[in-house]
Amino acid sequence: AQKVTQAQTEISVVEKEDVTLDCVYETRDTTYYLFWYKQPPSGELVFLIRRNSFDEQNEISGRYSWNFQKSTSSFNFTITASQVVDSAVYFCALTRTGANNLFFGTGTRLTVIP
Amino acid sequence: GAGVSQSPSNKVTEKGKDVELRCDPISGHTALYWYRQSLGQGLEFLIYFQGNSAPDKSGLPSDRFSAERTGGSVSTLTIQRTQQEDSAVYLCASSPSSRNQETQYFGPGTRLLVL
Predict the structure, then answer these.
(1) Angle made by CA atoms A44, A49, A52, in degrees to the nearest 5
(2) What is the mean pLDDT of each successive set of 10 residues along chain A, which is 114 residues long?
(3) Is B109–A43 a contact, with Cβ atoms under 8 angstroms apart?
(4) How far apart are CA A98 and CA A10, in angstroms?
(5) Which residues touch A96 (CB under 8 Å, ≥6 apart)?
(6) What is the pLDDT of residue B56?
(7) Which pLDDT does position A55 carry in this prediction?
(8) In this structure, are strands A74-79 and B75-79 parallel, antiparallel, or unpaired?
């Protein structure tokens, strides 16, 4: 069975602080893909990153960075120098071999206070 | 180019009525997905299409829910005899193919309220 756990339901930070959103997953597959999506107040899910299970390189994109560790089944997301525009719900998701649908975590609501 | 579009953006209906929700995927995307986002259930998969075929309907919650896709493009999700528990945001996504490594791009959703 597949499961994605985002233990942090809500996080509040003050602008310019760094924040890390945790994601822990469970799967028996050796090949799988992990995703992060952002859902701003407008409601539309915005794709942020995709990572396959064979690529454990960390990735940085501007203020965003992702730390994938298979040993701990985690795919954490860090926002550096947070901004008010980062306020949103962030979802971690997983697809597995032979299945096409995304398994989503329950999301983490991030509020950045000016 | 244009993203995934959905209509209507909001729908209010009375219990027992039928509703149709429409999704226009990104041009050229062969795979199309429907998800439901509700307070109690989070984001849950409903059905996906590869072309006009629906290989996986496992997420449809009951036989009141059905979906079709025509011309490998537009898809319609139909809910018959709506119930209050159907109230949710219905999200559509598309991807270039149905391979699991493909990124799914989401539309803005249809917010359904059943009174």
Answers:
(1) 130
(2) 92 97 93 93 91 86 93 95 97 84 94 96
(3) yes
(4) 33
(5) A2, A27, A29, A31, A32, A103, B100
(6) 82
(7) 84
(8) unpaired
Query: Given an 8 Å threshold on Cβ–Cβ distance, is B48 in contact with A101?
Result: yes
The residues near B103 (Cβ < 8 Å, ≥ 6 apart) are A35, A47, A50, B95
Q: Which residue does chain B place closest to A35, by CA atoms?
A: B103
Query: Which residues have a Cβ under 8 Å from the Cβ of B39 and sit 6 or more positions away?
Result: none
Indicate the residue of B56, B103, B111 with minimum beta-carbon distance to A101.
B56
Specify the residue for token string 């760094």. Answer: A18
Residue whose C-alpha is closest to residue A79's, from A94, A60, A106? A60
**Residues in chain B, total:** 115
Instruction: Name A111's bridge partners.
Output: A12
Cis peptide bond N-terminal to B8, omega within 30: yes
Residue B100 and residue A47: Cβ atoms within 8 Å? no
Residues of chain A with Cβ-Cβ distance to B56 below 8 Å are 99-101
Amino acid sitting at position A85: V
Per-residue pLDDT of B70-103, as tens digits, reads 988 999 999 999 999 999 999 999 999 877 778 8
Q: What is the pLDDT of residues B55-76, one digit of tens each?
A: 888 899 999 999 999 988 999 9
Q: Token digits for A30?
A: 């050796």
- What pLDDT was estimated at residue B1? 56
